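Changelog excerpt

This revision adds worked examples to the README so contributors can see how folded entries look when concatenated. The first example is reproduced verbatim below.
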Amino acid sequence: MEWQAFYVTLKLAAIATTVLMVVAAPVACVLAYARFPGKSLVEALLYLPMALPPTVLGFYFIMVLGPRGIAGRPWEALTGQSLLFTFTGIALASVLYSVPFAIQPMKAAFRKIDRRLLESASVLGLSPAAAFVRVVLPNSIGGIIAAAVLVFLHTIGAFGVLIMVGGSIPGVTKVASIAIYEAVEAMDYRAAHLMSLCFLPISYVFLLIANKLGEES
């Protein structure tokens, strides 16, 4: 069994989850409480990865991260390396691909907070940033953990986007879902079965956690 592919998968999921928990939380807070022109347009743009086919996203990621892309060109000029077919490239693609799965649960959790707590924080002189850290986050732990679970599961199950952006380089961009696909193509059903079987307990436990948090919230 290709343990390297599982290591790359778990590493990728851990990085994407960590990055999105930091980046998506303030964005979700703004979407939960702020009112501004074009808010619905911004939300629709952020949720777009959830609606588009993975191959469509993969194609546009190739255009953006490629040597002539708006992200790929400055990256290559700075580092001398391409973003495509690298772990950095699939990590960036995974983060963007999972944005909706981070924002939606956190936004829902933030909106459940009693407004009187935020009003009291304002009366006590807390800045919006301080209120976010000292009031919003501590009262939304369930939603934040649920978001982390969803992002993690979504990342370990990703296939179309990753194979287009990263290909299948062993130890670098070859994740478990790609390894399973290649095993099936090679008619190595035993290896495909063993690798698929490893996903069942991981996914089941994480879904139990998400469901438990949903019942308690």
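The second example, added in the same revision:
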Amino acid sequence: MTEQADWTAEDTEDVVCCLCRVPGTLVHDVAPFGVVRCPQCELVFISPRLRPEALQRLYDDPRYFEGGVYGSAVSSAGGVHGSGVSSDESAPPAEGRLSPAMLLQRTWTAGRLRLIDRERGGPPVGGRLLEVGAGYGLFLAAARNAGWTTSGVELSRTGAEHAQDTLGLDVFCGQLEEAPLDPGFDAVCAWDTVEHVPDPLSFWRTVRSLVADDGVVLFSTPYISSLPARLLGTRWWTLKPTEHIWHFSPRTHALLLARAGLALTRVVRSPLASANAGRLDSLVCVARPIPGT
């Protein structure tokens, strides 16, 4: 991730809780940003936060994909999205060996594809899969190799161009609400994405309109009620107020999803599960459409 040490108050805006439409109460002052908690539903979010045009500059900077948990996988495998953890079996590191970061990504990808199959009761025979926050297209390419008919949405122009031009994937560059997508997806995935979106409630309502009534939604996020988050406070490595503008718990995930017509049906917390391997502060979640919504 690129470091931005020069953000000022002019780059920020105040926002309210996407569920309750009220301002939050300050939890941490990380000027020019604030970590706040909704006094009604307890959803944690960033306010003030970066304005949309400042966020776009952040995501368009190629350095955004460098470093962190992804290590050398950025340069060796064509890049990794900061808001989507993914892997491409056809893109080994250029130096001819696997980095620990790439091994983790492949573990996550394989575990998540198996989780989708378990939730759907079998392999993707003719199934359609949408990934929101597709990054450089690495998870989407693996899903395509597994037999899915794939589509993607990615805000970063750098990531979307790589997915389109290098991997030949169908990826729209922009917000989900703007994407020209046909409804009826059998699976919709959003790996480490919803914490970045401007309005999670609007995001999930759009996902509900796109997923088939018998489809499945899978996603991952950091969570504010994790042990590292509670112990470390402002030193929590996943706080990242420039880009992680919403911070969830299983409870607030369930509240948001229900308001959008989706039911949270499974939460994977264990860092021993392959879909969440090595992650002490991350959730992998499954949701299903609520009938009649």
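Reviewer comment on example two: The chain has one domain: 13-289. The CA atoms of residues 92 and 98 lie 7 Å apart.
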